[in-house]
Design a protein that fits this description.
Blueprint (H helix, E strand, L loop, with lengths): L1 E5 L6 H10 L3 E6 L2 H9 L3 E4 L5 H11 L3 E4 L9 H21 L4 E7 L24 H15 L4 E7 L1 E3 L10 H6 L17 E2 L1 E3 H11 L5 E5 L5 E2 H12 L20 H5 L9 H4 L4
Parallel strand pairs: 1-2, 1-4, 2-3, 4-5, 5-6, 6-10, 7-9
Antiparallel strand pairs: 8-11
Helix pairs in contact: 1-7, 3-4, 4-5
Length: 288
């Protein structure tokens, strides 16, 4: 298949390109920087210099590529700016879907998240609604996710991959990332999340497993699918292990839980044959 990858130089995209090429696909990736374009070419894919917020430019690139599938892995996380990331989810997705329609594309695989669900006790499956009543700043994040998912659903087949919290190379949870800085007590550290060791539950996902799921999803039926590891866990359980793997102090356990922090299940993904090669953060954080 001919696959057009938006977000080809992000944490997922940079691992995804060689996997798609190894699977025999013809791949075109985009980047808004010359360094990104060169990186894509070095990996063996065709590359186009275009910004996802440039609607006419993106349309020209997609029409020229004539892909069978669009792969949406767009994020704007390098500046640790939630508003910028939500803007890309809304406008970048709108431009990408409009460009796909112009090119006659009817299949898209899109990156979403698995922690935008409404509050509850048990880990959420895909039938649980998004947290539409969330207060700010979470409300803005959920609104961006909703806009992304509703927009990609305008195409014939839209597979929405609701990833768990990504860790591994190039993510916020890498040794050189903002989470390590926040845990080490750096007062300048910026991180859109919490480093409190409370009872809030998270589902994690190694970034390489996220890329593998995207490759598999090229052939999946449409709809949302949680892509998470096997073990949702409370922050007071996983944070000490993460801190140890990063070589920084572990936070003191505290009571309480965010009611929306419930984790997610991956039964649907497993029914389609996907399995995480890093089944638990317990060994994944340590690189095992």
């Amino acid at each position: 298949m001919r696959i057009f990858v938006a977000g080809a130089t992000g944490a997922v995209g940079r691992l995804l390109l060689p996997m798609l090429l190894d699977a025999g696909h013809e791949v075109t990736g985009i980047s808004r920087t010359s360094a990104g374009v060169e990186r894509i070419r070095r990996q063996g894919a065709a590359a186009v210099a275009v910004d996802a917020l440039d609607s006419p430019g993106l349309r020209r690139a997609l029409v020229a590529a004539q892909p069978d599938v669009v792969m949406h892995q767009l994020t704007d996380l390098s500046g640790v700016d939630g508003a910028a990331n939500s803007r890309l989810r809304v406008l970048g997705t709108r431009h990408l879907v409009d460009a796909a329609r112009a090119a006659g594309v009817q299949r898209i695989v899109a990156q979403s998240i698995a922690w935008a669900y409404a509050p509850g006790e048990a880990p959420a499956d895909e039938s649980v609604p998004l947290d539409h009543s969330a207060e700010q700043p979470r409300g803005g994040m959920v609104a961006g996710v909703r806009a992304l998912e509703e927009t990609v659903a305008e195409l014939g087949t839209a597979v929405v991959l609701r990833y768990g919290i990504l860790y591994g190379p190039g993510t916020w949870y890498a040794p050189d990332g903002p989470v390590a800085a926040a845990l080490s007590g750096d007062p300048t550290a910026r991180f859109l999340g919490s480093v409190e060791a409370d009872r809030s539950i998270s589902s994690f996902l190694h970034v390489a497993d996220a890329a593998r799921a995207a490759v598999a999803a090229v052939d999946w039926p449409g709809g949302p699918v949680n892509i998470v590891d096997d073990e949702p866990a409370e922050a007071r359980e996983w944070l000490p292990l993460l801190a140890a793997s990063l070589g920084v102090p572990a936070p003191t356990p505290v009571p309480g839980r965010q009611p929306w922090a419930r984790g997610a299940t991956h039964h649907l993904a497993r029914s389609r044959g996907w399995r995480p090669e890093h089944p638990t953060w317990r060994t994944g954080f340590a690189g095992k």
